[in-house]
Each structure stands twice: as C-alpha cells, then as structure tokens.
Design goal:
The chain contains 10 helices and no strands. It is an all-alpha fold and 246 residues long.
Length: 246
C-alpha cells in the first residue's frame, strides 16, 4: 500500500536523479533507485525508474539522432541484450533482502570510484575497443537488469575513453542504454512486475521527472562538473551504506 512516505521519497528521488541526468546525460537510475529503496521494495522501484528513463531517452535520441556515435551504439547492443537476459533471470530468482543489500554494495563501489577517479579518463587502445564494448555491454546489461541501476557508469566509462565531444557523448550514452533498458522493461512486464502500485507511481513520478530534467538541463549543467560529480558520488556512498545496514 502506498502512503505519503513512499510517495514523498519517490518524488524527491526522481526529481534529484533526473536533475543529475539532465546535467550529465546519465545516472538517473543509479541515483534514484537506492533512494527509493529506503521506502519501497527494489522490485517496485526498478520497473518504475526504468520506464521513466525510456520516456526521456526516446525523445532525446530522436531529437539529436545526427549527433549519436552510431558505430559505438551498434557494437554494444548484442552484448547488452545478452546481459539483460542474464540479469532478468537473476532478478526474478532473487529475494528482496539479497537485492537490497547487494544493490547497496554496488552503489557504494560506484560512489567510491567516482570520488577517487577525480576526472581521470580510462584509455583503451584501438585494437581492444571491440572487446571493451563487449565487456561494457554484457556487464552493463546484466547489472542494469538486476538492480535497475549501475549500468550508466559502465557504459559511460567505455564511451568516455573514446574522447567524444561532450554533446555527442551525452546523447550516445543515452542511446546506448535505451535498447537494454527498453528490453528489460518488456522483461519486467513479462515477469509480472508491473503491479497497480508500479503504474500508480509512474503516473505520480512523471511531473517530477520533467521538473528534475529541466532543472538539470538549465541550472545544474552550469556548475563545476568535477565538484558536482563528487557531490553525487558522496550521496551514492551514503545511500549504499544505508541500504547495506538497513
């Protein structure tokens, strides 16, 4: 049963997470789902946030399709779909306690990587890039399907290593993630996770998603990127620790 606490946490998490996505181009699920998991089951939060990302990613991909680095998108898709299939199998056969605590561990790791990286870029030799795309696709697809979060940094690290122009990077990350996210949304539906509570939260969360996206795109994008990234990483570490000990 959804109450004021659950709805309030969802509204705040979605607004903040999509502000982060509006400023950086990715990271909505990695921020939103750990916050929502304090008040909602992981199996409820994951389908909600995954569906919201599809709603925002499709118009962006259509609007900026000429800026997308399509060869990189096409490299990752087959491996991402394999990863999604594996992740859905794990998701549907895992208990809530396992999902909650392992999500906390994953989020802490990503937060610490963000805090310690300090803007460093991973360098990948040209001959290794196809293999790196395969690893990013399999890992990102499976982690994303299990936790609904954590795939953006994986795809982001791979694409960042290619030294793409900022706008090209943002829209390419979004597009690379669109296919596996869409596939896992269909998977969650096929597995019966779109309950009445999920649909109710989707309707409630939509205006907060648009508000957060607008704030991120028009306000937060002008902030110092490194400091903003450190702030978000710190929030992730604290959220992850909270989930582990919950």
């Amino acid at each position: 049963m959804l109450g004021a606490w659950e709805i309030g946490v969802c509204a705040f998490a979605v607004t903040f997470a999509f502000a982060v996505r509006g400023a950086t181009g990715f990271g909505a699920s990695t921020v939103a789902i750990p916050m929502m998991a304090f008040a909602l089951p992981v199996t409820l939060a994951v389908p909600v946030v995954s569906s919201l990302i599809v709603v925002t990613a499709v118009p962006q991909a259509l609007r900026e399709r000429r800026k997308i680095a399509w060869p990189e998108v096409l490299k990752t898709i087959p491996y991402s779909l394999l990863g999604v299939a594996l992740g859905l199998a794990i998701f549907s056969n895992s208990g809530e306690a396992f999902l909650l605590r392992s999500l906390g561990v994953v989020i802490v790791v990503y937060g610490l990587v963000g805090l310690l990286a300090k803007g460093q870029t991973l360098e990948i030799r040209p001959g290794w890039r196809h293999g790196a795309a395969a690893v990013a696709g399999l890992t990102g697809g499976s982690v994303g399907a299990v936790y609904g979060a954590g795939s953006a940094p994986i795809y982001g690290m791979y694409l960042n290593s290619l030294n793409l122009e900022k706008t090209v990077f943002r829209v390419t990350v979004s597009t690379v993630m669109l296919v596996p996210i869409g596939a896992r949304v269909f998977g969650y539906g096929g597995l019966g996770y779109f309950s009445a509570d999920v649909l109710t939260l989707l309707v409630i969360a939509l205006p907060f998603m648009f508000i957060g996206s607008k704030v991120g795109d028009s306000v937060l994008r002008g902030l110092d990127k490194a400091r903003f990234g450190q702030l978000v990483s710190g929030v992730l570490v604290l959220s992850g620790i909270g989930l582990v000990v919950k």
